[in-house]
Design brief:
Blueprint: E1 2-8, E2 11-17, E3 26-30, H1 37-44, E4 52-54, E5 56-57, E6 60-61, H2 67-72, E7 75-78, H3 90-94, E8 101-102, E9 105-106, H4 108-120, H5 138-151, E10 156-160, H6 168-183, E11 187-191, H7 195-201, E12 204-209, E13 212-218, H8 224-232, E14 250-259, E15 266-271, E16 275-280, H9 286-294, E17 299-306, E18 309-310, H10 316-322, E19 324-327, H11 331-335, H12 342-346, E20 353-354, E21 357-358, H13 360-374, H14 390-404, E22 408-412, H15 420-435, E23 439-443, H16 447-453, E24 456-461, E25 464-465, E26 469-470, H17 476-485
Parallel strand pairs: 3-11, 3-12, 7-10, 10-11, 16-23, 16-24, 19-22, 22-23
Antiparallel strand pairs: 1-2, 1-4, 5-6, 8-9, 12-13, 14-15, 14-17, 17-18, 20-21, 24-25, 24-26
Helix pairs in contact: 4-5, 5-6, 13-14
């Protein structure tokens, strides 16, 4: 891809991007949200037509008029939001839209053979052809998408943040599959924000910033700080900003909290000015704990106390009035109304009103202050939040809790799907909130994040929450061991 240009009205998304991917390599495409990665890949996959530049595939000019034509030329795109028909089988999904036929009817024997050949290339752990996709977990579903690409004889496969929803075990399996594809001569473009994954799986890298190529090179011998500096356009002094932890009195207490379907038992004490992390594997019950605490899921037993007062069970509206704020792990489906404005989303849990009457001018002033305070990149508060990058969407989700003036912040995967620069900004913000006396309960599947920002960490295993220990007493290895074997509650 040479000098690729793409604009949407007055917005220049790509300003002359160069990208060279070799046969049989894994090439990491890096950049902050909004840098142009997704736009560039949509040009490659035929979803967008470039306004300028040149594309060459296997030595021949390449100008697909749509995704189908791109796939016919051997380019497949696997999006972060998987495009699968959940009610169909694995086999049916693999050949969907390209079913082999015998006359007017589908050739079932040929279809099965095609699916089995594609699944065999994935190695051990591939799902069965007859399994319904709806019954599969995130990891196996991703393998179905890969098998679909292989069935179409793709020679270039693009992975867009492929591990964001995977467990560590599924991620390791995916790495092994990608390495196998590379060894077979397939070219892989890997878009991701986890720098240690880039070191683990990629051969070369390219960094985009503001729609332009700003660097490329071999992964071997490159310090990850180089990528961070290129992405941000400045030196990032420290990934996890230092802060002076000074926890105050206990604000929130849970005593044997049990929900439907989880947690089975959760007890903890959260202090003002403290960031308490919740570690665990996918399905351990961390999200369910936050949902039960916030009143989204039913509570079977146990007690919740705030400032020493027993709260009993409550609805989300009551929890908001009591000073709780929740940022969901699923930003797009649960955390934000993507078709509505930034202002609507930011003030949703605390409208700017007097005696039940909205105050538009005061709302605009409040929204502008939060946009400026958190550095949200947008036109203004009237812009649709769905048009923002993931990092800026997450800032608005956090701004809603700050505008709401919540004392207890329940943050579920607060940096999922955001770029490195935005992560550093969010980490700094969380530290500032703790310094203001807020109490933060943070769920994260990224153990370095918990170790870097938390004062204490507790591990959840099969619905049971272990005792919280100072972050300095944990390592990634001990966290993973406790999460996998349930030894955290013995600590």
């Amino acid at each position: 891809m040479r000098g690729v240009v793409k604009a949407f009205g007055p917005v220049q998304a790509l300003g002359g991007v160069d990208l060279e991917v070799r046969a049989g390599e894994v090439h990491a495409l890096l950049g902050e949200n909004g840098a142009g990665k997704s736009t560039l890949m949509k040009v490659l996959s035929g979803a967008y037509r470039p306004d300028g530049g040149e594309l060459v595939l296997e030595g021949r000019p390449y100008a697909p008029r749509g995704p189908q034509e791109a796939r016919a030329r051997g380019v497949a795109m696997i999006y972060q939001e998987l495009a699968l028909a959940l009610d169909l089988t694995v086999e049916e999904n693999i050949v969907l839209g390209a079913e082999p036929r015998s006359g007017p009817a589908v050739d079932r024997a040929a279809r099965r053979a095609l699916a089995e050949r594609a699944l065999a290339r994935l190695g051990e752990g591939a799902p069965a052809p007859d399994a319904r996709v709806a019954e599969l977990g995130p990891g196996p579903r991703q393998l179905v998408e890969i098998a679909r690409a292989l069935a179409s004889e793709a020679r270039v496969i693009v992975f867009d943040e492929p591990t964001s929803s995977l467990s560590r075990r599924d991620a390791e399996h995916l790495f092994a599959v990608v390495e196998r594809l590379r060894d077979e001569g397939t070219s892989v473009i890997w878009i991701g924000h986890f720098l240690e994954e880039i070191q683990r799986v990629a051969d070369r890298w390219t960094v985009l910033r503001d729609g332009s190529t700003v660097g490329t090179g071999d992964v071997a011998g490159t310090d990850p700080s180089t990528w961070v500096t290129l992405m941000a356009g400045r030196a990032v002094e420290e990934f996890f900003p230092p802060r002076e932890a000074a926890p105050g009195e206990t604000l929130l207490e849970l005593d044997g909290l049990a929900g439907v379907p989880m947690p089975d038992s959760a007890s903890l004490a959260l202090r003002r000015g403290e960031i308490l992390g919740l570690a665990g594997l996918v399905g351990a019950g961390r999200t369910e704990l936050l949902r039960a605490l916030f009143g989204l899921d039913a509570v079977r037993s146990g007690r919740v106390r705030l400032g020493g007062a027993d709260l009993g069970t409550g609805t989300p509206a009551q929890r908001i009035d009591q000073g709780f704020g929740l940022a969901s792990e699923d930003r797009k489906a649960e955390g934000l109304a993507l078709e509505r404005s930034i202002a609507f989303n930011l003030t949703l849990s605390r409208p700017v009103a007097a005696r039940g009457v909205l105050r538009p001018a005061e709302e605009r002033g409040a929204v502008e202050r939060w946009i400026a305070s958190l550095g949200v990149r947008c036109r203004d508060g009237a812009q649709s939040i769905g048009e923002l990058s993931g990092g800026n969407q997450q800032k608005v989700a956090l701004a809603r809790l700050l505008h709401q003036d919540a004392d207890v912040l329940l943050l579920d995967e607060p940096t999922r799907g955001v770029d490195v620069g935005a992560k550093v900004e969010i980490y700094r913000l969380l530290g500032e909130l703790a310094a203001q006396g807020k109490a933060l309960l943070v769920v994260s599947s990224y153990f370095p994040e918990l170790l870097g920002i938390c004062d204490r960490i507790a591990v959840m295993h099969r619905g049971r929450l272990g005792a919280a220990r100072p972050a300095s007493e944990w390592t990634e290895t001990t966290l993973l061991d406790a999460a996998a074997r349930g030894e955290g509650d013995a600590a």
